[in-house]
Amino acid sequence: MNVEKQKKVIVGISGGVDSSVSALLLKEAGFDVQGIFMKNWTNSAPNMECTSEQDFKDAEEVCDQIGIPLHQANFSSDYWDKVFKKFLSDHHAGLTPNPDILCNKEIKFRAFLDYCLETGADFIATGHYARLKGDGNYMRLLRGADPKKDQSYFLHQVLGEDLKKTIFPLGELTKEQVRSIAQDNNLATSMKKDSVGICFIGKNKYNDFIGNFLGKKPGKILDENGDKLGEHDGLMYFTLGQRQGIGLGGIKGKEQDSWYVAHKDIGSDDLTVVQGSSHPLLYSDGCYVDDIHWINEEVKEDFDCKVQIRYQSEAVAARVSRSNQSYKIEFNEPQLAVTPGQSAVIYRDDECLGGSIIKDRISKIYYNWAENRGYNYQAYG
User: Fold this and answer.
1) Are 343 and 356 a contacting pair, CB within 8 Å?
2) What is the pLDDT of residues 325-369, one digit of tens each?
3) I need a surface site. Which of 51, 184, 248, 296 has the fewest CB within 10 A?
4) Which bin fits 341, alpha (ψ -120 to 50), beta or left (φ > 0)?
5) Are 319 and 304 within 8 A, CB to CB?
6) Nearest-angstrom CA–CA distance, 37 and 234
7) pLDDT of 198 above 80
8) What is the CATH topology of the domain spanning 216-275?
């Protein structure tokens, strides 16, 4: 946090321990700190539990302890229009979206950032586990020091220009250190459990929540040969590589290995499953993405890098190249469950260069299988 002191910093206070410690560290460092509790969601689904009221109470208590003012700002309309509608439409299209990435792009580092700057802030701060490094005209996004908590994956759609106005106080800390700081200062949130999963779903079960908005669209569960094994309530409730929640137990004449989702066919609503995590239909040699969002300067030539295809998965060696109007990412080794709708995020050492949404997987085995099964499938690239 080698930024000029006495600058005004507005911290996004969520009511959790990470944002609480972020605010505390900034206050101790001599900044003029204020907190804003972002209201991003209006709970309109029946029988759904929303934690925002308790979160706001926790935020109020911890800000009183730290000695900083707390205000509320309502971004629920922006969230609905720019994040949640996209989340639903992607599910309808058979994709597996990650709304937290879009929330960072459209809400925290656009609507919230603009709001704070308009009210006189010099910087915003959040409790993300990521680091920033100024390099000439650029502000570079680096992985957080804690590899178990690094959140740079979720931040790859943010603009470098906006990162110049951002502070990540927890970037050099581990989660254990953050908890320790909170406990040493008797913060009200010191023992509060971390939120897990998508922010607006909270404690609710994923399928129960989205079922309120998407309903059901039943189809058949098939094995790779097209034999019917069962039925499902809708392709939107499944993702490639999924093992749990398929609803298939032991089936007569089949091996007793676990079932995994290998294909979702939008045209027929067929869900194809295979047995065993090593099944070749689950693996891809690469993926296609549309225009890559570059945090700073665009890399115009083909290049080698590391690519991360889901949060907390290992970044793997790959090569990125132009392919017609899209980009082609080829892995050095085949990867499990490359999933359209998720993000392929590009790294050079610890620096996050940017990324894009996965449009399609690259797998000759998969292409040949789809053609033989009679699915109207065309490779994206």
Assistant:
1) yes
2) 789 999 999 999 999 999 999 999 999 999 999 999 999 999 999
3) 184
4) left
5) yes
6) 36
7) no
8) SH3 type barrels. (2.30.30)
Q: Which residues are catalytic?
A: 103, 199
Outline where the chain has alpha helix (H): 17-28, 52-66, 76-79, 85-92, 99-103, 112-118, 160-163, 175-184, 206-214, 364-373
- Predicted pLDDT at 230: 94
Answer for the pair 288, 328: CB distance below 8 angstroms, yes or no: yes
Which CATH number applies to 283-373: 3.40.50.880, 2.60.120.200, 3.40.50.2300, 2.40.30.10?
Answer: 2.40.30.10
Give tens-digit pLDDT for 199-244: 555 555 777 777 888 889 999 999 999 999 999 999 999 999 999 8
Structure-model confidence comparison of residues 54 and 183, the more confident one: 183
State the Cα–Cα distance between residues 34 and 241, nearest whole angstrom: 43
Alpha-carbon distance of 312 to 310, in angstroms, equals 6
Under CATH, domain 8-184 is a member of which superfamily?
Answer: HUPs (3.40.50.620)
Q: Mean pLDDT score of the chain, rounded to an integer?
A: 91
Do the Cβ atoms of 179 and 170 come closer than 8 Å?
no
Q: Where in the chain is the domain with CATH 3.40.50.620?
A: 8-184
pLDDT in tens, 160-196: 999 999 999 999 999 999 999 999 999 999 998 887 6
User: Which residues lie closer than 8 Å to 339 by C-beta, 6 or more apart?
Assistant: 96, 239, 240, 241, 309, 310, 358
| 8 Å CB contact between 341 and 358 | yes
Characterise 282 by phi-psi region: left (phi > 0), alpha (psi -120 to 50), beta (else). alpha
- Give the helix/strand (H/E) hosting 33: strand 32-39
Give the tokens for residue 59: 């935020």
**pTM above 0.70?**
yes
CA distance 9 to 125: 7
pLDDT at 272: 97
Q: Which amino acid is it at 236?
A: M
Q: What is the pLDDT of residue 46?
A: 54
